Amino acid sequence: MIVPNHWAEARRQHKTSSKQITVRRFGWSLESEAEAQAMAEQRANEALTDLLSGRQLDRREKKAAYNGADGVPIREEVLTRLGETVITRNAYGAHCLNTPHVLFADIDFASNVPRRWTAWSMAVLLTTSLMAGLWMQSASVALVGAFASLLLAYALAASAHAIWVATQGGREAMARRRLNAYLTQHPLWGVRVYRTPAGLRVLATHQTFRADAPEAQEFFSAVGADPRYVRMCINQRCFRARLTAKPWRIGVRAHMRPRPGIWPVNPEHLPVREAWIERYEAQARAFSACRFVESLGSATEHIDVMPVVELHDRETRALRQGMPIA
């Protein structure tokens, strides 16, 4: 995990009589802008050399804060550094904890319908349409039915899936059963469970992990961790937890300016950004990012994990009873 303090970008061009190649690459540094610029120049030179040798590369890297930035570090404003743990401000203004070794897993109670359910409903509707066409000896009936199947498949799948979820006791009960089943099969595991506005957050306390470790990936899969979160963990080689409220959940409707809020920001735009931050911080103090529910599994507490637990619980206000979560 790398969260730089300084960023730079370099551009290199190669012209011939028939075409021009332009590549851009970022550089970064914990120490200085000059060091970041030197890295950018080196990376741009290397990328141009690779392109001219026939290697297929993106000519320009995305200016992405976190997700989608494979190979490029986390690009967010650093608020606090505490050893290996870094607190940043994300693209929509919230504080985020970034840690290379303490496992967090987000489990969202999303209403997304699994693709296999949509495929099943599509197969049922298409088969019904074809059978109807054969029975009525009408190609037009079969074609109309097939077209209708395309339109109705997701609606049928969503309805069937919702009924199935209800018979299982709801999404939270299903998530709890998956977590409890994993802990039963892995008695050395100990976790803290938190309620978030959209689901559960699980924090492993018995040992440290690498984000790309097989054990971490197995746990993510078993408990149904948010796939987007899992991809981000692997890309950035760290775990992550939001520490403060999402702005739109606490009445801050305006986006952080300038848009997008990717760091660093042009100095001339800092006053409007800071004005937004001042309003957000004032309103966020009345909310928790999550609420502690319980500890499960092993009571073992790893010495390197507990400082992160204490930081997380303090900054999220997870132990404050009665405070709304957002």
Automatic annotation (TrEMBL):
Regions that span the bilayer: 117-136, 142-167
Keywords: Membrane, Transmembrane, Transmembrane helix
Name listed for the protein in its UniProt record: Transmembrane protein
Lineage: Bacteria, Pseudomonadati, Pseudomonadota, Betaproteobacteria, Burkholderiales
